[in-house]
Write a structure and sequence with these properties.
alpha+beta, 11 helices, globular, Aminopeptidase, 8-stranded mixed sheet, N-acyltransferase activity
Length: about 425
């Protein structure tokens, strides 16, 4: 079914940007704390009717002006390996980008009513820049010295890893190169403010701020015998774990820890899970058709397993799907991974339950967000690995489009599967979010 040439072509297609599907530049989006960001282009007054000025853009958070930015009349390039070589001044393969100046316009005031920008608003500004200039792996900026706390902001950007200065002596010392990869890895969030995609809570705040310590544990089941790191405690039932606005569908995606309810209560999560598993389309993939009590027991067993985190996914608060996020080392798929499962490898089993929330754009949004959550949850996770049925061409194509690649085929006792891989570096280097 999947010949070598077709597989290679599919991978190549997945790694090429779908320019024909590129949406118009986003002008409004929501931060993880649900505050609204507006990016407005200012229209200067021109008596002659001809505007020769440089376009200016104003960024507002919940209607409050936080900054204005514009392109300067120069570009900058971040050179790394070429520095100190004869190619330092001729490395044309490294893209040059316009330098953006960030300042507070005379007609606006910051959230504090002064010419300062808070740390969390600086992160929102960087978010807005990567929303507008998402195709750039770096964005060179300068902070106007008229911003009263510009030194503090520079220190925040550099110390958090959100940006870096140029290594080459030929660049401007004032330029800071914002890093798209560092931004989507959560740099500048936990430990600085509470606006990140991982939602802080009583159960997960410490885990999100610092990795859970690596302490040996052990699993012995009929299918698995292995030593592995101790896994962190599970979040509270119903706890929101991750929240991100997805511009492609103009909705907020949330991941919530499965809430099974108390005693014989039928929680909204359990009701949806039961209904979805009895849907013919879902049953073909999961083969878990059954009674409400069977599904209650199924979820209870998952919740008891330290290596599996069951979550419910929703669009703007409306439940749409279910996923099990697993640590692969104590999962029976580990035996089939060619180079073996690493301590912090993660896997996923997913279903999109609601018919109205199906489609390529939504599938890409939630699958890439699941990958994002797994990489954010622990910086030691270097790979996300899937094992869909080999005959499930739809989910395999969705995985390829999300920049996973096909590593191999293998046979469980009950199905033939495809092993899909996503390395951490590829995910954050490419323009996928």
């Amino acid at each position: 079914m999947f010949r070598s040439r077709e597989r290679l072509q599919a991978i190549q297609n997945a790694l090429v940007t779908r320019r024909d599907m590129a949406p118009d530049p986003v002008r409004t989006f929501l931060l993880p704390d649900r505050k609204r960001v507006d990016i407005n282009q200012l229209q200067p007054y021109c008596p002659s009717g001809v505007d020769f000025s440089v376009p200016e853009f104003q960024i507002l958070v919940d209607g409050v002006h936080v900054c204005t930015y514009r392109s300067l009349d120069r570009t900058a390039v971040l050179l790394l390996s070429a520095v100190g070589t004869p190619h330092e001044l001729t490395a044309t393969h490294v893209p040059r980008y316009p330098v953006l100046e960030i300042y507070i316009s005379s007609g606006g005031a910051s959230a504090q009513g002064s010419r300062q920008i808070t740390i969390q608003d600086m992160w929102a500004i960087i978010y807005a820049l990567f929303i507008r200039h998402h195709e750039q792996d770096t964005i060179p900026i300068v902070l106007s010295p008229e911003i009263q706390n510009h030194i503090v902001l520079c220190s925040y950007i550099l110390c958090s890893g959100l940006g870096r200065t140029a290594i080459s002596s030929h660049g401007s010392k004032e330029d800071i190169f914002l890093s798209r990869a560092a931004f989507w890895q959560g740099a500048g969030t936990h430990g600085y403010h509470g606006r990140g995609w991982l939602c802080p809570s009583s159960a997960s705040t410490q885990y999100a701020a610092a990795p859970f310590p690596s302490v040996q544990s052990f699993t012995r089941t009929p299918l698995v015998i292995t030593a592995h790191p101790l896994r962190p405690p599970k979040p509270l039932p119903g706890e929101v774990l991750y929240r991100r606005y997805c511009p492609t569908v103009d909705q907020v995606l949330e991941f919530t820890c499965f809430d099974i309810g108390i005693d014989d209560e039928v929680s909204p999560h359990l009701e949806a899970f039961h209904r979805w598993q009895n849907d013919e389309r879902v049953s073909k993939g999961w083969d878990e058709r059954g009674t409400l009590e069977q599904h209650r027991q199924y979820v209870k067993n998952v919740l008891k397993d330290p290596g599996v985190l069951p979550i419910m996914m929703s669009w703007d608060g409306v439940l749409m799907g279910y996923a099990e996020l697993v640590y692969l080392k104590e999962n029976h798929v580990a035996t089939y991974i060619p180079d073996g499962a690493k301590d912090w490898d993660r896997g996923l089993h997913v279903l999109a339950g609601e018919e109205r929330f199906r489609g390529w754009e939504r599938a890409q949004a939630w699958l890439r967000s699941v990958h994002h959550y797994l990489f954010l949850a622990d910086p030691r996770t270097e790979r996300v690995i899937g094992e869909p049925k080999a005959e499930n061409a739809a989910i395999i194509q969705v995985s390829l489009d999300a920049t996973m690649h096909l590593a191999t085929f293998f046979d469980f006792p009950y199905k033939r599967s495809v092993l899909t891989f996503l390395p951490r570096e590829r995910f954050f280097k490419m323009d996928v979010l």
